[in-house]
Amino acid sequence: MKPIINLKFFILLFCFFLPISYLLTVCLPAGPANGGAGWLIAAYAEDKIVAIVNSDVITRKDLIDSLNFMRLQLSREYKGKDLEEKIGTVKMDILERLIEDRLILQEAKKNKITIDEARIKSRINEIKKDYPTDTQFQAELMKQGLTQGDIEKKIREQFLMFGIVEQKVRGKITILPDEVTEFYEKNKKDLNSGEVRELEAISLETDDLAKSVAYNLKLGAKLEDLASRYPLIVNKLEIRSGEELKKDIEEAVSKLGINEISKPVRIDDKYYIFRIVSITPGKDLSLSEVGGKIRDLLFEKKMQESMVKWLDELKKNSYIKITQD
Question: Is residue 267 part of a domain?
Fold first, then answer.
């Protein structure tokens, strides 16, 4: 049973962790000279403590900053609706993740884990490569409510957490050859290379052009002849069973047979027609072909189990109080 929080301790803790500027301004009378009470209320809302983890506190601002940092990271891979969907999947669990991060960081500090600052600078430079100029990078940070100092702090924490997890969990995991063989024998019938579909993706600028090209292809026209009459671009793709595709593409090609033509599909600002060129059935794989992947799979499984066990132990031996409604 977790101890009941001591009110005096809570008040002292609250005051200790609030920014000095906030402690000063909150005592000032609200008035025109100080900008009224609205911004004080906003400051309080951001600095409101939502959880206590041993000697650390997590504020509402920490929640907002973490969400913005996740958005910045995910925006390197996802855009628009896809980005918002990914953000939505992590939003509900963000406080639990922050609590676990604090516990891991506390362990890193306790075990004197250190980080080479050059690694942090290198990671910042990697992120900056996604932006044409430093000015645009800084503008994106401002848009997300972040500064470069915030990003450096988050990256430093990520490296520290990785360091202690490597020491306490990951470095202690081993996968024996017998485990790989046993898994293979038990799951041999499911270990298949998977079907491979080779297709042509024909892109055009307008819906009308796409419909005309699709119509002519269905009548038997050759793509080479149509390319001389229409401003189209052809790309060849391979799709393996199990690969995650955009919903629109999956719906367009999933039921097509060889040489069948899809209806035009709008993706971003282009219109696409898909044609299946070939379908190669999957084949059973030997132990030598899948041994590495099986080892990775078993390692990941053990890693998750060990991580949960380690975190549960940290939580069991820690003081954790969630204070938000």
Answer: yes
